[in-house]
Amino acid sequence: MSLTPFSKSQLLPQEEKLEVARAKSELFIGIPKETSYQERRICLTPDAVNSLTSNGHRIMIEAGAGESSSYTDKEYSDAGAQITQDTSKVFGCPIILKVEPPTMEEIEMMSPQAILISAIQIKTRKGNYFEALMQKKITALAFEYIKDDDGSYPAVKSLSEIAGTASILIAAELMINNQFGKGLLFGNITGVAPTEVVIIGAGSVGEFAAKTALGLGANVKVFDNSITKLRRLQNHLNQRIFTSTIQPKALLKALRRCDVAIGGMRGKDRCPVIVTETMVEYMKKGAIIVDVSIDTGGCFETSEITTHEKPTFIKNNVIHYCVPNIPSRYSKTASLSISNIITPYLLQVAEDGGIESAIRCNHGLKHGVYLYHGILTNKSIGEWFNLPESDINLIVF
């Protein structure tokens, strides 16, 4: 029986679907050892590597890359990764996965048209970093720019949660230190006044610092210029605490009484200085300042960058802890967190048939792209470094 014209036309949509069907791709990922000062994290845990290799993907890891996060080469080898001592071999992989941005020497080792997935830390970059990636026509994605379905930034939020929780634990350690601490227990026990904590900033850092402090029994006061953030924090804590907009008189009164002050503010370019040196002078002798905002300048005027090896200094009789990259102190927890975020994206990239198809399908992933085949696609970076940029939506659609 011959087909009628009508039945022929019914086949056309099926032919169209076959033409645009996406084929699953195989990923070949290189994970080099982190060389940046004080960086102890790694992007993928052995469990994440096992998940990827089980799906047919290849992982090459530089020997010793996971040691600072308490993961051995044997664990990665047992998970299906290939271990190599050759750094250039790792950087020759089509996809490079790093925590810190690569150095200029590492960019030299990368293959043309490679894909780079790492943090960008724009405040520490220089124009020649982007120019070097452009020359190699690299496609680069930044952890900080990748968006979730709800519009949040999962990597930034996760590391902020670690930093917020850690800030209270660090303060608790410093309070009992006999060398310069006051020998106080952080918290609240019967017959003893609870620890007084002031938190500046009601974002993720402030929220998790508040949760941890409240869990230990402290009295908490949170200051922020955004009523919306303060309201959201109250709702997330499920209890009423003292909150206030940043008014110098009220803030000074709280700082004079507090045992611990946490700085968790963020700014568009540099973090605003909220607490002046004069305010710090009024604080108790032996009080603790943990300035989590130090990586963007700090919100205490007296803050100065310190290191994990020598984390504190005393100024105006107040102990200052001003280490940038606090999550690196808890390298295994931070590595697990990064791995949990990045692994589903990698599996999705493979399912979609490669990075180009993935960023067409996933707007959150597309938002993470700041270089596409050597073309700068991030407006902020273009303005910051005076580099020509193009709208990625005009290139990938």
Helices and strands in order:
Blueprint: H1 5-20, E1 28-31, H2 46-54, E2 58-62, H3 73-78, E3 82-84, H4 87-91, E4 95-97, H5 104-109, E5 115-118, H6 127-135, E6 139-142, H7 154-176, E7 196-200, H8 204-215, E8 219-223, H9 227-237, E9 242-244, H10 248-257, E10 260-263, H11 277-281, E11 288-291, E12 312-315, E13 318-321, H12 331-351, H13 355-361, H14 363-368, E14 369-372, E15 375-376, H15 379-385, H16 392-395
Parallel strand pairs: 1-2, 1-4, 2-3, 4-5, 5-6, 7-8, 7-10, 8-9, 10-11, 11-13
Antiparallel strand pairs: 6-14, 12-13, 14-15
Helix pairs in contact: 7-8, 7-12, 12-13
Structural summary, described in words:
The chain is α/β, with parallel strands linked by helices. It has helices at 5-20, 46-54, 73-78, 87-91, 104-109, 127-135, 154-176, 204-215, 227-237, 248-257, 277-281, 331-351, 355-361, 363-368, 379-385, 392-395; strands spanning 28-31, 58-62, 82-84, 95-97, 115-118, 139-142, 196-200, 219-223, 242-244, 260-263, 288-291, 312-315, 318-321, 369-372, 375-376. Strand 7 (196-200), helix 8 and strand 8 (219-223) form a beta-alpha-beta unit. Helix 7 runs antiparallel to helix 12 (331-351) and helix 12 packs across helix 13 (355-361). The longest helix is centred in the middle third of the chain and has 23 residues, at 154-176. Mean pLDDT is 90; it is low at 6-11 and 16-20.
